[in-house]
Design goal:
Layout (H helix, E strand, L loop, with lengths): L8 E7 L4 E7 L5 E6 L6 E2 L15 E5 L8 H11 L14 E5 L14 H13 L17 E2 L9 E2 L1 E9 L2 E9 L4 E2 L2 H9 L14 E2 L2 E2 L5 E8 L3 H18 E2 L9 E10 L6 H19 L1
Parallel strand pairs: 5-6, 14-16
Antiparallel strand pairs: 1-2, 2-5, 3-16, 4-6, 7-8, 9-10, 10-14, 11-15, 12-13
Helix pairs in contact: 1-2, 4-5
Length: about 300
Amino acid sequence: MELPIEGLQVGHWTNEHARTGMTVILFPEGTVASGEVRGGAPATREFDLLDPVSTVDRLDALVLAGGSAFGLAAVDGVVDHLARKGCGFATGAGPVPIVVGLSLFDLLEGDSSVRPGPADGRAAAAAAAATTDSPVATGPVGAGTGATVGTWRGREHARQGGFGVAVVRYQNCTVAALVAVNASGDVGDPAAAEAVADGTFTGWPRSAPGFGTVSGDLRGNTTIGAVVTDAALTKAECRLLAISAHDGLARAVFPAHTRSDGDALVAAATNAVVVGDGDLDMLRVLATAAVQRAVVSAC
């Protein structure tokens, strides 16, 4: 999938044997961002910087990593890569790269002793920086390498998740969604929600309530990613875009945002296209549609 947003670069690091990986998204100068967490078990780094009331008004890179909390160490490598290039928030001691990290739980797949680290972060950042108009690889690559979906009823129901990308446009604006889908819920199955509503659903978990554990079997969950637009938005407007992005996740995954998911999405605006005051809601609709399509395309 090609990304028609100028300056946006994406690179993967994939370990197929260990079934883990990571994805780095590099943003052009002038990008602002915010985010929203909707799951009970997030693993994040520097996410508070995305709060609209926080001082820093830029985002240089986003790291999406496997390895659960261990994988957040990969952010160090991306920070180092950007620091060597002189990118970051200006301070008296020089620029400090602003890099947010999100990770998902894939430790039950492959070799759990292998997790993305600083060297892998540097490799993925270098791969991203080397891309120009190259399509972004999707499926079981990068942060989606060890991803699974459908585990809420037990791991015997699990199937392959992955990394998905979708691009939607309206008039002169573009919104791209890049999502690593590792959801406990089922993807692309609206019939399940209908069956729950009319009382005919027969797929309930067989043990105690709560989807985090079943008979002591810890489940690996969490959908993480970003929606990126070329529109000119403030951090507060990006926050609203991130909220709508989660609506797209909830349209594609059932059930979504459980206590064992750490669902977190970042919304970034590269500020290349000036939009009118009434266009924010249009962009939010695009974000919802893009995330829904990206999630479904990942599996």
